[in-house]
């Protein structure tokens, strides 16, 4: 994990070096190993580095061959060696062995199309001295954060809110639309943030700043139109091949590397493939709780023993009030996913042993692991089998007449939630099932003033 910051001005005035240093220092925790700056007419770039690749010569900012383009970069490019060979064949000359330099040369070769050639997780900024422009880009699924604010001909950017909020012209006024949507999603959806002045660069997007104006472009979108015809066995083999390749490229590191292991399918699959692809014992890390009902250490332990991992277990007593200030500072805006607390604890303990850790995040989204995906499929069948008059009349009224069930595991509660939304349109139905507060609940919660402030906003749009 690294961090980047920067300021550009359309009037070419000198950047306040002390201000940029404060912005950079606000994200020191993201990159404790090194920092670096670039200053030119109307531009300042800053960077905090956690060294993983090319420890000796990877100091940033990094420049192109004639020093007309400078980059600060957070992330890791998995195909940088292949990309470098292609660029060298086209005459590019490199002075480091870092993945960062491959990006700036890709920019020289392909311009603002360069993110299409990158395989990895990234957020970067390139200052082009020739065009007097700043180019920002974020990886396809948004693993690396990137925030920005437009301020009277200036663009201020950074990896975290605390960096941007060091700038005296960045307003802390609250974005009411963001809070309105947050209450549905328990996070603030991009490109909004909790601050009116600050925006998120969306995943799979780039931003080009020039002469005080910005141009946003989507360079990637998941394409579901191309189908393949294979049976279940072939699909399973293909999934394992893809996962194996994804794990293999992520083992590229010059520092100690390990994995979070919960004992579930996702993290267990990652650890098993790591064990097969690595020449050394995999270091695995799990947390448990004193309350046995919430602890799954025994599952993780069995997996670790099966693959011969060097396994580490930590028993924690969660204290949300103790770590809440730290979480609030680093998230920078409302975020209510309860996984933030165990994730913090396992990350804190794991960092004592390794610098990089893989995990199984995203498995449920990729392989339809959540109950709501099965419910969406069931609702489609439900709508075909029963006439609307029965669904929307008799059955819905019966569901409404049932008492409220508090336990999430109660089958009657699940049936009630299903029937209440099953006859809605697919978008409305899915929103109902993922929302912490539905629209009516939010209106009941709001004051009259806040209700008026948010009346024009529709969460369906997100």
What does the secondary structure layout of this molecule look like, with pairings?
Elements lengths: L2 E7 L7 H9 L8 E7 L2 E7 L12 E2 L5 E9 L2 H10 L9 H12 L9 E9 L4 E6 L8 E5 L2 E5 L2 H4 L11 H10 L13 E2 L4 E6 L2 E6 L13 H19 L6 E4 L4 H13 L5 E7 L7 H11 L2 E7 L3 H12 L8 H11 L5 E3 L4 H4 L4 H15 L2 H14 L9 H11 L4 H9 L4 H7 L2 H6 L9
Parallel strand pairs: 13-14, 13-16, 14-15
Antiparallel strand pairs: 1-3, 1-9, 2-3, 4-5, 5-6, 6-7, 7-11, 8-9, 8-10, 11-12
Feature tags:
462 residues; alpha+beta; Glutamine Phosphoribosylpyrophosphate, subunit 1, domain 1; Rossmann fold; six-stranded antiparallel β-sheet; 17 helices; 38% helix; globular
Describe the overall structure.
- The mean pLDDT is 91.
- This protein is 38% helix and 20% strand.
- The protein has a 6-stranded antiparallel beta sheet.
- It has 17 helices and 16 strands.
- The longest helix has 19 residues, at 232-250.
- The chain folds into 3 domains: 3-218, Glutamine Phosphoribosylpyrophosphate, subunit 1, domain 1 (4-Layer Sandwich), CATH 3.60.20; 241-366, 3-Layer(aba) Sandwich (Rossmann fold), CATH 3.40.50.620; 371-461, no CATH class.
- A hairpin with a 2-residue loop joins strand 11 (205-210) and strand 12 (213-218).
- It is an alpha+beta fold.
- The protein is globular.
């Amino acid at each position: 994990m690294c961090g980047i910051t920067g300021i550009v001005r359309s009037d070419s005035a000198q950047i306040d070096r002390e201000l940029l240093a404060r912005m950079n220092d606000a994200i020191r925790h993201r990159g404790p190993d090194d920092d670096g700056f670039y200053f030119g007419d109307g531009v300042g770039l800053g960077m905090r580095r956690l060294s993983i690749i090319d420890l000796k010569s990877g100091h940033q900012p990094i420049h192109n061959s004639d020093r007309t383009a400078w980059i600060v970069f957070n992330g890791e490019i998995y195909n940088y060696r292949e990309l470098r060979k292609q660029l060298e064949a086209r005459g590019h000359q490199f002075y480091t062995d870092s993945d960062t330099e491959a990006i700036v040369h890709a920019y020289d070769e392909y311009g603002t199309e360069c993110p299409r050639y990158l395989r990895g997780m990234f957020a970067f900024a390139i200052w082009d001295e020739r065009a007097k422009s700043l180019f920002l880009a974020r990886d396809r699924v948004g693993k690396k954060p990137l925030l920005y604010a437009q301020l009277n001909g200036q663009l201020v950017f950074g990896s975290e809110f605390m960096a941007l909020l060091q700038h005296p012209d960045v307003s802390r006024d609250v974005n009411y639309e963001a809070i309105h949507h947050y209450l549905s999603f328990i996070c603030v959806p991009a490109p909004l943030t909790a601050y009116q002045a600050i925006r998120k660069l969306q995943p799979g997007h780039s931003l080009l700043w020039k002469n005080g104006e910005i141009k946003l472009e989507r360079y990637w979108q998941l394409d579901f139109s191309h189908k393949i015809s294979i049976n279940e066995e072939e699909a399973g083999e293909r999934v394992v091949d893809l996962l194996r390749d994804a794990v293999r490229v992520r083992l590229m590191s010059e520092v100690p590397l390990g994995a979070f292991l919960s004992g579930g399918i996702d993290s267990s699959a990652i650890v098993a493939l790591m064990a097969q692809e690595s020449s050394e014992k995999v270091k695995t890390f799990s947390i448990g709780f004193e309350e046995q009902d919430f602890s799954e250490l025994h599952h993780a332990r069995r997996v670790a023993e099966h693959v011969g991992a060097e396994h580490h277990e930590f028993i924690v007593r969660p204290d949300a009030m103790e770590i809440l200030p730290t979480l609030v500072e680093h998230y920078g805006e409302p975020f209510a996913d309860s996984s933030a607390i165990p994730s913090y604890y396992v990350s804190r303990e794991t960092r004592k042993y390794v610098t990089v850790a893989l995990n199984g995040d995203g498995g449920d989204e990729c392989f339809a692991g959540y109950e709501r995906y099965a419910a969406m499929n069931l609702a489609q069948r439900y709508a075909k089998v029963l006439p609307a008059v029965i669904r929307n009349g008799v059955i819905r009224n019966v569901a409404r007449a049932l008492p409220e069930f508090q336990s999430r595991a109660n089958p009657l509660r699940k049936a009630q939630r299903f029937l209440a939304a099953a006859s809605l349109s697919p978008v409305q139905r899915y929103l109902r099932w993922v929302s912490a507060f539905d629209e009516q609940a939010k209106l009941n919660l709001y004051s009259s003033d806040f209700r008026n402030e948010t009346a024009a906003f529709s969460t369906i749009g997100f």
